[in-house]
């Protein structure tokens, strides 16, 4: 992070060159309008000597006579025919087309703050871009109403221009238990706009909307991306105009009337995080380093977690869960998490949500006996909550039906038998906060699995106004209040699995639940693409049952365990139903997971896929390194080619050896398989190693130890 103690200084620059972390961002700030992007990408030397002619776009037949470069907040008057960066209107119907004049620049380290105003529209705009030491461009903005009438804001999404070689859109989509499915295609003229209107980040969030050189992959081709730090409605866009301009932006998708700026009021859109790299690994690595350098980033070794959901579902009892806790401690678990079903009348998903008091029916002696047992075994205790939600069949809904989010008289359609609470109502917020504080304080809880299991539909405040934005901010405030009261509390962001994965919630949460599927084959893909943005230690991944509950696929323990390596690892299965031998095998893997977790949480991630996307290599590289080599499916080519292990220090020598049990993969004819091999990082990356045949849905974990 930059030295934020340095004072802001006003700057006379007409060309602003920010450079850090191997990236340069160059802005034309000559005025009189808002600055525009001259370059974003490859680091340039400090003494770039830009010719003034570069600052003036050329005149082209049949376009406007005196062209103006389109800016970070593009405006129609400049000849920009894409979506304006800011849209809105005053109640007297003026102010719908802006002409911001640059009023001043301030500089601090590799940050610039831009001040502009439109006296006719009576709006002030400021925009801060920090190029962090890791090379991530963090963009924060604000628009203020300086007029005497209300300003109805429709959208505000500053963005960055891309060069014309940015020609292939690449982002993610998904659905429940199938999050993060990559999609890519040509950036054609028009807009690739990804709108999520679910009142949460959504399983289909683009996560990082990227545009790259055609054919870019993990290692090759420039790629530019943006992530929006926001858990409400969002709109990401990659645009290409007929004039040949390209632009990348992401903003909050506002419902009509959601932001009405009274005189003097301001609106700040969610922070945008832009990253560039040659290859996806480089783009992703910048995000990882930036996220890891946040002061709030988890620093302790990620505790091996057992979550009880798929072990018992709603069938909770002291006897069953103490036995499970005992078995968990025996195999090396460090955090025990009690999932849904411990409170109120919650014996199934139809009732009880909102009643955050321990069920005397299920827990006649309260949770203390279980929690004390867990603590005695040396494990932390965590618990599941879903604070923003309510079942209509609950004591809370009967007492406060007016607290349910709704647009008008009728309630929104139910989803998972539930509605959403209006946390922006102060008394509702205080009720939920007080209930959670009491729960945490009375039970010595150090971890909340914070769920959010439905899309928001017609999410109004009950008085007619839209409330998605207010709800999102209230959820953040609730998490922040709890963390202030309980500084050691960790929060997991879960939302029907992985539907709330973003840097907005991760300003308060400490990991995400990537998906409700723990089928390792699907998890390989989900985690690979979630880690495009998030470093692996923030991604929860559990070893589940042999037969995956969501898909019915059957996998070996080795494949399930291997899949939880590049993540915050844990278990989610009924250990008491395993044989002693099976439990020993789980314990063996937990020992390995503990051995490698520091490397996973600090290493630089590399990923490769073969031409057919059949064979995947994933690595975490620090002083030493680990790699997994996994066969996702049968490719057209017979196995047998050498597999490179990329990203190692080319001059160093490493001893590479198989880590962990791979009884199904025989090393016949592969001399290094049993005893390891010493090779240079260069040879490992360029020539690679021969591997024995790895069947689909099998894999191997390797360790590369630097030789001294
Ligand atoms: C959805 C979550 O993603 C699951 O892990 C589990 O916590 C259930 N909710 C509980 O209702």
Keywords:
about 700 residues; alpha+beta; eight-stranded parallel barrel; about 20% helix
Quick structural summary:
By secondary structure, this protein is an alpha+beta fold.
Low-confidence stretches: none
Oligomer: single chain
The profile of the biggest β sheet is: 11 strands, antiparallel
Q: How large, in whole angstroms, is the Cα Rg?
A: 27 Å
Ions, cofactors and other bound molecules = (2R,3S,4R,5S)-2-(hydroxymethyl)piperidine-3,4,5-triol
Please indicate the percent range of residues in DSSP E strands (runs of 2 or more).
Answer: 25-35%
Which word captures the global form? globular
Derived from helix and strand composition plus strand pairing, the structural class reads alpha+beta
- Count the beta strands: 37
Q: Whole-Å distance between the termini?
A: 32 Å
Mean pLDDT across the residues is: 96
> Helicity range of the residues?
10-25%
State the helix count: 12
